[in-house]
């Protein structure tokens, strides 16, 4: 048996809270043990105290030949889970297998150890073919499934989707995409107010696929009807939907107030005002928020011209917009940046941010038994952060994707 790895002395974020001087023991691809070490009081761990001994406290039963990695002064959190991601590293999930792997690996370098690949509106025949390719990579464990964003969305709220390729959510066509994904479809975003929308929501729920409300012009009442039919996710809440009004509360109010709904938020400083983000957290509660990237090709690369499906995108100062029309076209966000911003700029509690980037999306995907928290028996997916919440290491299934940077 290969020697275990012991990451010792960190501030570890567990489902039960934050512990100081904690240790995580990794054996093979799994977490073998988690030792709480010192105080379990989150307030006591708000800022690290320098250790008063030569080495970190180790858990009992550590193998004599174990590799001890001293990570005092750092945070250990679960690997990130991204529900909604179109690409990165100059490649998209609408491309070849090589493109898809490039995008996946780019986001792994930023802490996303579990990723759902999102498509963008395109010709139905192309989406069916792409679903087959993505399902193969899901079967190989490279991605956690497929999210179809479009073509079943409202032309009134199309955002960065090609209007001529949009269509009503005919349940037969929705079923065609599900079948093409060979059991790997995880989510479909649609505008439930369109003809066939409610029936499509019911179809998705019956097949165990998440029905997400987004790119929608629905009223409050229509959104409530969709939730009652089985919709459980708000696709990038606030974006690509009517604003909240005091006489026309619209979909935002319905999605925030219903405890059955998880709301996606893009915390990049562009898609949402900080007050809107705080409103969502306050009203939905930390257990119902999932941070997403909605990333496109430029994530991890930089400014320039890119394609999002059939549409050309200009990225300037890190903000992606359509060349024609200027609509925001996804983001260049990575989840490590979202994590850091949420804690240091939005001033959200670390435990709530961990829930939003790991536990909540893992539960939604039905994979919380394997990922989403640091617990014995789960995959050894973890992220190492420094005191300022900058990424300093990434482990996926027990192997370092980013070697620890402890200098």
Could you provide a short overview of the structure?
The protein has 9 helices and 21 strands. By secondary structure, the chain is an alpha/beta fold.
Describe this structure in words.
Helices cover 25% and strands 26% of the residues. With 407 residues, the protein is of the alpha/beta class. It folds into 2 domains: 5-77 and 372-402, Roll (Urease, subunit C, domain 1), CATH 2.30.40; 80-365, Alpha-Beta Barrel (TIM Barrel). Strands 1, 2, 3, 4, 5, 19, 20 and 21 form an 8-stranded mixed beta sheet that branches. It has an 8-stranded parallel beta sheet with strand order 6-9-10-11-12-13-14-15. It has a 3-stranded antiparallel beta sheet with strand order 16-17-18, with no helix packed on it. A hairpin with a 2-residue loop joins strand 17 and strand 18 (319-322). Helix 3 runs parallel beside helix 4 and helix 8 (335-344) packs antiparallel against helix 9. The model is unreliable at 38-52 (pLDDT under 50).
């Amino acid at each position: 048996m290969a020697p275990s790895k012991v990451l010792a002395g960190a501030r570890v974020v567990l489902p039960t809270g934050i512990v100081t001087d904690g240790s995580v023991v990794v054996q093979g691809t799994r977490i073998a043990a988690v030792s709480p070490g010192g105080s379990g009081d989150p307030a006591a761990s708000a800022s690290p105290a320098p250790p008063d001994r030569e080495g970190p406290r180790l858990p009992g039963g550590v193998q004599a030949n174990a590799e001890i990695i001293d990570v005092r002064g750092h945070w250990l959190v679960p690997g990130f889970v991204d529900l909604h991601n179109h690409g990165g590293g100059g490649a998209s999930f609408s491309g070849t297998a090589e493109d898809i792997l490039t995008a996946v690996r780019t986001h792994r370098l930023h802490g996303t150890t579990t990723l759902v690949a999102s498509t963008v509106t395109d010709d139905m025949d192309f989406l069916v073919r792409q679903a087959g390719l993505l399902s193969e990579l899901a079967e190989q464990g490279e991605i956690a499934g497929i999210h179809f964003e479009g073509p079943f969305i409202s032309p009134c709220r199309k955002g960065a989707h090609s209007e001529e390729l949009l269509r009503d959510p005919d349940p037969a066509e929705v079923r065609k995409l599900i079948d093409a994904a060979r059991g790997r479809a995880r989510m479909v975003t649609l505008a439930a107010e369109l003809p066939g929308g409610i029936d499509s929501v019911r179809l998705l729920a019956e097949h165990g696929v998440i029905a997400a409300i987004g790119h929608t012009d629905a009223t409050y009442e229509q959104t409530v009807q969709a939730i009652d039919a089985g919709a459980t996710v708000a696709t990038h809440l606030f974006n690509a939907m009517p604003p909240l009004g005091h006489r026309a509360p619209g979909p935002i109010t319905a999605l925030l107030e219903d405890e059955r709904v998880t709301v996606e938020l893009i915390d990049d400083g562009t898609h949402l005002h900080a007050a809107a983000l705080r409103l969502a957290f306050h009203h939905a509660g930390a257990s119902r928020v999932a941070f997403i990237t909605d990333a496109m090709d430029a994530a991890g690369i930089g400014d320039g011209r890119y394609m999002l499906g059939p549409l050309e995108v200009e990225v300037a100062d890190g903000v992606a917009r359509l060349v024609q029309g200027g609509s925001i076209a996804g983001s260049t966000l990575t989840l490590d940046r979202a994590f850091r911003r949420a804690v240091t700029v939005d001033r959200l509690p670390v435990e709530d941010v961990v829930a939003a980037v790991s536990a909540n999306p893992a539960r939604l995907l039905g994979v919380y038994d394997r990922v989403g928290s640091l617990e014995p028996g789960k995959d050894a997916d973890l992220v190492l952060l420094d005191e300022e919440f900058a990424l300093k290491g990434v482990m996926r299934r027990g192997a370092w994707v980013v070697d620890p940077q402890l200098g």
